[in-house]
Write a structure and sequence with these properties.
alpha+beta, Beta-lactamase, eight-stranded antiparallel sheet, three-stranded antiparallel sheet, about 35% helix
């Protein structure tokens, strides 16, 4: 299916927006339990792909397209490496990241930019505060304003700029969907996922964002996870494994998951998306229909238990989602309907 890329300046009118089957047909996959009472439920779609890319099992309709948000970043980074980006593992992991804004993350972004002869002023991602709680509070106390550097997508944006310099492309327009970099990203997403990109939107950071089947997200991560070392996809996957703190942050669940699971790669995304590539080539992807951020890790944990991942401590970290009453745990978010 041919993809038509157009500049996106405004959202589509509400009457033209039709929910994907991955949302509209999503079953209940999580309960919010307070003092033994189910207070809320969350619907979602989960898919596991086999090493050959076929669907192994699913809850809901994983053929429906979703906006994978930051779970796309390792695939975007692959397109950059193929286009000439050459970074050491810790900085390549940062290119795949939604970083916490800790000092080593910010230094890494500055190093990527400096290596390309650029500065923080060239970043075009949305200004933000660090998402690490301590760093966020420190910035507020210091009256330090939001900045593109501190925002969690600055690793990706600095790498996009560096790729443009390496490839001889105009860096000032790197966010344009028609830019050669963004065309290369679209091609890579379709190749690795085995799915057509059905829409190009604008991500929260300002970069183009692609919609494609949730199955394709799982398939892409499975393929990345078994890529040969030294190849472009192998370099991306190895960077994520070697430098998980640069992929997330010191206190992040995704960091603990990758660090505690030999051979696994993973990336979380906004609006409750999560993708994992297993060392045997299987892929797992989760999308919570209402975008509730604390539900996706819990549901992912249930899916990883179902597929037999031997990483009990890392999975338990994903399941840490207490429901509080007067500041004390009185319940939890729990996955349902995903037992083997």
């Amino acid at each position: 299916m041919a993809v038509r890329l157009e500049r996106v300046s405004e959202p589509s009118p509400p009457h033209n927006a039709v929910p994907s089957s991955a949302l509209a047909q999503a079953p209940i996959v999580a309960h919010v339990v307070r003092s033994g009472f189910v207070e809320s439920v969350h619907r979602g779609t989960v898919v596991v792909t086999a090493p050959d890319g076929s669907i192994d099992w699913a809850a809901g309709d994983p053929r429906g397209p979703v906006l994978a948000r930051s779970s796309n970043k390792p695939i975007q980074a692959l397109a950059m490496v193929r286009s000439g980006l050459d970074l050491p593992p810790h900085l390549l992991a940062l290119a795949c990241s939604s970083h916490s804004g800790e000092p080593f993350h910010l230094q890494g972004v500055q190093d990527i930019l400096a290596g390309a002869g650029l500065t923080e002023a060239d970043l075009q991602n949305t200004p933000g505060y660090p998402i690490d709680e301590a760093e966020h509070d420190a910035w507020i106390r210091a009256s330090r304003p939001k900045s593109p550097l501190g925002q969690n997508c600055s690793g990706k944006h600095s790498a996009m700029l560096a790729t443009c310099v390496a490839a001889g492309w105009e860096p000032a327009t790197y966010r344009d969907p028609l830019h050669p970099l963004q065309r290369a990203i679209t091609t890579t997403i379709e190749e690795l996922s085995g799915e057509s990109v059905v829409a190009v939107a604008v991500d929260g950071c300002g970069a183009p964002l692609h919609a494609y089947a949730l199955t394709g997200l799982a398939r892409a991560f499975g393929r990345l996870a078994v890529a040969e070392p030294g190849t472009a996809p192998g370099r991306v996957a190895d960077a994520m494994r070697l430098e998980p703190a640069y992929l997330g942050g010191t206190h992040r669940q995704v960091t603990a998951l990758v660090r505690g699971s030999a051979g696994l790669i993973a990336k979380d995304g906004a609006e409750s998306v999560y993708a994992v590539g297993l060392p045997d080539g299987r892929g797992v992807a989760v999308k919570i229909a209402d975008g509730y951020p604390r539900a996706a890790p819990v549901v992912l944990a249930a899916a990883l238990r179902r597929v037999g991942l031997d990483a009990a401590e890392a999975i338990a970290t994903l399941e840490e989602a207490p429901v509080l009453g007067h500041g004390d745990p009185v319940g939890a978010i729990v996955a349902v309907g995903l037992d083997a």
